[in-house]
Amino acid sequence: MFNIIKKIIENLFKTHQWCILIKKSNESVWVRLKQPKDVSRADPFIVYKDGKYYIFFEEFDIKKRHGYLCVGEYCQNCNEIKNIRVILNEKYHLSFPNVFLYKNEYYMIPESSENKTIDLYKFINFPYNLVKIKTLINDISAADNVLLFKDQKVFLFTSLYTHSRCLHSENLSIYQSNDLLNDDFIEIHNNPVLTDKEFVRNGGQFIESGSSLFRVSQDCKKRYGYKINFMKVNKITDTEYEEEVSKMIYPPKGYIAFHTYNIANDMEIADGKIVVKNLFVLINNFIDLLKLIFKRLG
Predict the structure, then answer these.
(1) Where would I find the Glucosamine inositolphosphorylceramide transferase 1 N-terminal domain in this sequence (predicted)?
(2) Which residues are 242's β-sheet partners?
(3) Strands 129-138, 52-61: parallel, antiparallel or unpaired by DSSP?
């Protein structure tokens, strides 16, 4: 009985914390970047500009249970992100800050599924100031949105939550537009194009290598972020999409999940999930337990 109570108390302290990992492309060992104990950092995107690496990421306040978007400069000598600033903070949860270059300007499409929108932001003063310029799609719960510019068209890859039986990790859908800034996005035929939980959900930006194109996806079949997949794109048209598995990478030793991967210049960046003990988690779990008790009593 004592051991059971002890285990319950220990589990009340435990939470999962996401951390940002980085390495050079010619290296095999991932390095964890320093971060405070009271936050999780995930969904990293990396941009190389003017001799500097800028890392965009979701920061999740464990105490407040709120996610917002940040950016900072990667310090290679100290293995941490310097000059961090919050660049987007709303009442709803934000994640997956997809930053990309379009017609020599930097833009961002964050995940705002809680707000049921896919929004487009433009950097006015890169990388710290941005402004919302357009809602690409309204009334949609879409996760991990990624763009592909191909054949004079813009393809938006996303995973939708349509009802309790169709979760974000269970489908890949594609929308297309003739112009990112001046045209609407419409669904391609045969959506969703994929429904296998092992491969559907995006895990980063598209990667071009020679004449080949790869979609980064995360494996959510066994558990959320079980591994990263590199899917070779064989065909994409207004009506068809075909891909095949090219490569898989698993979380480094000591991590239980691995669900975002991006690359810039000679640096690769990812996120890893670890199990930690945190006082804020104990307090939050205790409050949740009390709410549940009062709800059942009432």
Answers:
(1) 42-246
(2) 235
(3) unpaired
**Amino acid type, 40:** S
Q: DSSP assignment of 212-260, as one string?
A: EEEEEEE--SSSTT--EEEEEEEEE-SS-EEEEEEEEE-PPTT-SB---
Rounded CA separation 298/287 (Å) = 16
CA atoms within 13 A on the CB side of 124: 6
User: The domain that contains 69 carries what CATH number?
Assistant: 2.115.10.20
Q: What is the pLDDT of residues 22-50, one digit of tens each?
A: 999 999 999 999 999 889 999 999 999 99
Q: Please indicate, yes or no, if residue 216 is contained in any of the structural domains.
A: yes
Helix axes 2-13, 279-297, angle to 10 degrees: 110
How far is C-alpha 100 from the chain's CA centre?
Answer: 14
Q: What are the pLDDT digits (tens) for 145-203?
A: 999 999 999 999 999 987 655 567 789 999 999 999 999 999 998 899 999 999 999 99
Query: For residue 30, is it within any domain?
Result: yes
**Number of domains observed in the structure of the chain:** 1
Tell me if residue 140 falls in helix, strand or coil. coil
- Does 9 fall in a domain? no
- Identity (one letter) of the amino acid at 174? I
Mark out the alpha helices in the chain (DSSP H runs).
2-13, 279-297
Is pLDDT larger for residue 170 or for residue 255? 255
Domain that holds residue 206: 15-297
Residue type, 240: E
